[in-house]
Automatic annotation (TrEMBL):
Keyword Transcription regulation attached: yes
Domain of life: Bacteria
Organism of provenance: Saccharothrix xinjiangensis
Keyword annotations from UniProtKB, A to Z: DNA-binding, Transcription, Transcription regulation
DNA-binding stretch(es), residue numbering of this chain: 39-58
Protein name: TetR/AcrR family transcriptional regulator
InterPro entries in the cross-refs: Homeodomain-like_sf, HTH-type_TetR-like_transc_reg, HTH_TetR, TetR_SbtR-like_C
HTH tetR-type domain segment(s): 17-76
Length: 201
């Protein structure tokens, strides 16, 4: 293969990666402003590409959301590892993990709904993301259960759904600044077998 031919073959891949990265940047801004139900065609227009280019990279909204959340996974993983490293009390560790999960689930307005629906849709790229979060929640939960700090019948999947419900309620029209701590307390008293003081944030 000649150098000229090689350069021609590399250029489309480079351009495609550049387009993909640019679309993700624009989509993050658009969803931050309009929520996850924002128009994909509007994202394409704002990115200066045709709808076909966007859909070649991201065939549907779930694929686009999964790509955006993938970019945030490093932060969530870092918080998980810090909790494991710094917190000795398994019940407090679970509490802090649920708080980190709640912050992740509120990255964009309306995000809890597609996350809630994803596990039931086996083909959704968000399903794998959710399963990873549930698996980690189970690990923290089981440690708290062994320590007597969480009720034995509670499941990680239920806590994950509870976090999504609280995250959704935070954005409800009737919610105010007192809603997040009140809702977190309600979730906490649902799983805790003894009183747990809210973690210092």
């Amino acid at each position: 293969m000649s150098e000229t031919t090689g350069a021609r073959e590399r250029r489309p891949r480079t351009d495609a990666q550049r387009n993909r990265t640019h679309i993700l940047d624009v989509a993050e801004q658009h969803f931050a402003e309009h929520g996850v139900t924002g128009s994909l065609d509007a994202i394409a227009k704002r990115a200066g590409v045709g709808p076909g280019t966007l859909y070649r990279h991201f065939p549907n909204r779930e694929v686009l959301l999964a790509a955006l959340l993938k970019a945030r996974e490093d932060e969530l993983v870092s918080r998980r590892d810090a909790i494991r490293r710094e917190v000795d009390d398994p019940t407090e560790a679970l509490d802090r993990w649920l708080d980190a999960l709640g912050r992740w689930a509120t990255a964009f307005d309306g995000l809890p709904e597609p996350l809630r629906a994803a596990p039931a849709e086996g083909t959704s790229p968000l399903a794998l993301t959710c399963q990873g979060c549930i698996t980690t929640t189970d690990e923290f939960l089981q440690a708290a259960q062994r320590d007597g700090g969480a009720r034995p019948e509670v499941r990680g999947a239920d806590l994950f759904l509870g976090v999504l419900a609280v995250s959704w309620a935070r954005g409800a029209a009737m919610a105010d600044e007192s809603s997040p701590p009140a809702l977190n307390t309600l979730l906490r008293t649902g799983w805790a077998s003894r009183a747990v003081e809210p973690s210092e944030r």
